[in-house]
Design a protein that fits this description.
Blueprint (H helix, E strand, L loop, with lengths): L2 H14 L2 H8 L3 H15 L4 E3 L4 E3 L1 H27 L5 E7 L1 H18 L3 E7 L6 H4 L3 E5 L8 E8 L1 E5 L1 H7 L13 E4 L7 E5 L5 E5 L5 E2 L2 H9 L4 E5 H10 L3 E3 L8 E7 L7 H38 L1
Parallel strand pairs: 3-4, 3-5, 8-11, 8-12
Antiparallel strand pairs: 1-2, 5-14, 6-14, 7-12, 7-13, 9-10
Helix pairs in contact: 1-2, 1-3, 1-4, 2-3, 5-10
């Protein structure tokens, strides 16, 4: 016999004042009610009800059990109601942590579109390149780029980012253009201070073999956009995510350096606290971000294909 069913029927008997009325309210037979109460008393090893031919009343133990059982059932009902509400439309405050440049260049427009589609969600976004502690700092979700440390957090890959080495035309004219990874030893490599590999750049050598190069340039910054600005100013070579340096490359303010040595793409991850169920506001945003990034990747691929075709036609015309 189900423990909650027995508990529920006992509470019904007390509140109805007897077996007959409790049976009527529950839509079952009086014998079924009696059977459940007997099973409960047998399981507990205690008499909960005083029974006479005219009335039923709780014993001292029964009264104490009723008080606790009524609260347990009320809390269970409330839990069911909360679970049902959480499966409904996204609503409430959504606290997001993201890297500064990604948040400014990519996430800000995503959040704008998301709020327009889900007006009952209020977004509180914190941009910080450090790895925040989701649970202790009260975040619902963090966007992280690159390799993830092992943890109990849940992570979903929502996109990818390609790191590229870039430098300004003026810098390359002054220092010479590297033709191989070994040539980077003679160059100023500007460093991103939160890089997971420390001051080492993990590049792709001939045959796909990973090579590491020490970044010993004159400048270290904890923000990717500021590093691209430094590269535009001719201070050195920068290893930059494509979503930060794409506009500078298209405008010609920087050029790609050793594109064949670029590292493997980094994953873009939506990281959430552990747990079996994800709140609707969090699930909705993760799905929205994933779809947005997939569309952006498809648009970028189409644009590159168009540029390649245009370049081919110009070459053929010449």
């Amino acid at each position: 016999m189900d423990r909650f069913a027995e508990m529920d029927m006992f509470v019904r008997v007390i509140e109805a004042g007897g077996f007959t009325e409790a049976a009527r309210r529950a839509g079952v037979s009086k014998s079924a009610v009696s059977k459940q109460i007997s099973a409960l008393e047998q399981r507990l090893g205690a008499r909960l009800l005083n029974r006479t031919t005219r009335r039923v009343s709780p014993t001292e133990i029964g009264l104490a059990y009723y008080d606790r059982a009524a609260r347990v059932l009320a809390e269970a009902e409330e839990a069911d109601a909360i679970a049902a509400a959480l499966q409904g439309a996204p609503r409430g405050e959504l606290r997001i942590s993201a890297p500064q440049s990604f948040g400014t260049l990519i996430l800000a427009p995503v959040v704008g579109e998301f709020i327009a589609e889900h007006p009952e969600v209020r977004v509180h976004m914190t941009l910080d390149d450090r790895f925040v502690e989701l649970i202790s700092e009260g975040f619902d979700l963090a966007v992280r780029i690159g390799a993830l440390e092992d943890s109990s957090l849940r992570a979903k890959r929502v996109g990818e980012s390609q790191l590229q080495m870039i430098a300004s035309p003026a810098y390359l004219k002054r220092k010479g253009e590297p033709r191989a990874i070994e040539d980077l030893a003679d160059h100023d490599l500007l460093h991103y201070s939160y890089l997971a590999s420390g001051r080492s750049w993990k590049l792709t050598g001939p045959g796909g073999v990973e090579r590491q190069v020490r970044a010993n340039g004159p400048l270290t910054i904890n923000n990717g956009s500021a590093l691209v600005t430094a590269a535009e100013q001719g201070l050195g070579i920068v290893l930059s995510p494509d979503f930060i340096c794409a506009d500078s490359l298209r405008a010609g303010r920087v050029r790609a350096v050793l594109p064949e040595a670029a590292p493997a793409p980094n994953g873009i991850w939506a990281v959430t606290p552990p747990g079996r169920f994800m709140q609707p506001k969090v699930r909705a945003f993760v799905d929205f971000l994933s779809l947005y990034l997939k569309r952006a990747e498809a648009d970028a691929a189409g644009r590159q294909a168009g540029e390649a075709r245009a370049e081919g036609l110009r070459t053929a015309a010449e």
